[in-house]
Write a structure and sequence with these properties.
Length: 213
């Protein structure tokens, strides 16, 4: 089963994707994570996209489509979770073509509905484990022990440079202009379901499970 998690920055896509990986053996394909990895490994592409990401703008369709194509050629395990992709109509069309090319099928697009006022707090309080990628929040999902990842014990906990109010404003504008039209696009082809992303993490997970089962 292949699914898309759709929603603005801070909606909880990454948090829910990780649960689906743990519970169902699905494979998380986060273009944000892939781009951040390219930056730290210092590739040409990584250098090119760094300033765009810091500003909160979208990188070109061509780059992210290339990253996704590399990943979906392999084994899809319990299915792919597209997290943060597609983000434009061009990317959505390209994903449709790629899935057809590799004989895959899109099962569900899950829109995570949140209201903007909650997002500032979600984004400024977010931190992640640099070792295993677990996502935390200073108020809603703190580590059990201060400064130590619950999952892997690493002390390498990081706050993203683009997780500030100014970049969030740009990211939200990008979302409304370029990504939110995908809600209509997937509604029209019968794939769309919506969940309340403002509920507690486990409640959101149950709503998603109800759609998948
Ligand atoms: P996205 O991948 O959509 O940008 P994340 O999954 O990284 O969002 O979540 C953003 C922040 O909000 C993180 O700090 C995360 O711990 C927190 N968070 C995620 N889901 C919830 C929720 N349902 N309730 C409260 N906080 C949440
Ligand atoms: P968020 O937590 O805000 O949902 P992501 O980690 O998904 O953020 O993405 C971080 C940044 O990476 C975006 O602001 C954008 O610059 C770039 N990016 C990620 N995915 C895409 C995509 N599918 N298309 C264009 N740019 C992307
Ligand atoms: Zn960790």
């Amino acid at each position: 089963m292949n699914i898309i998690l759709l929603g603005p920055p801070g909606a909880g896509k990454g948090t829910q994707a990780r649960k689906l990986v743990d519970e169902r053996g699905m494979i998380q394909l986060s273009t944000g994570d892939m781009l951040r990895e390219a930056r730290t490994s210092g590739t040409e592409m990584g250098k090119r996209v760094a300033a765009i990401m810091d500003a909160g703008e979208l990188v070109t369709d061509e780059i992210v489509i290339g990253l996704i194509e590399e990943k979906i050629q392999g084994d899809n395990g319990g299915g792919f979770i597209f997290d943060g992709f597609p983000r434009t109509l061009g990317q959505a069309d390209a994903l449709g073509d790629l899935l057809a090319k590799y004989k895959q099928h899109l099962d569900h697009v899950i829109e995570m509905r949140v209201d903007d006022t909650a997002l500032v707090n979600r984004i400024v309080g977010r931190f992640t484990c640099g070792n295993c990628g677990e996502v935390y929040h200073k108020d809603t999902k703190p580590t059990k022990k201060d400064g130590v990842c619950d999952v892997c014990g690493s002390e390498d906990l990081k706050h993203r440079a683009d997780d500030n109010e100014e970049s969030l404003r740009t990211r939200l504008m990008e979302y409304y202009k370029k990504t939110s039209p995908l809600i209509g696009y997937y509604y029209a082809n019968g794939k769309l379901s919506s969940v309340n992303g403002l509920a507690e993490i486990d409640k959101v997970a149950s709503s998603i499970a109800a759609i998948l089962d």
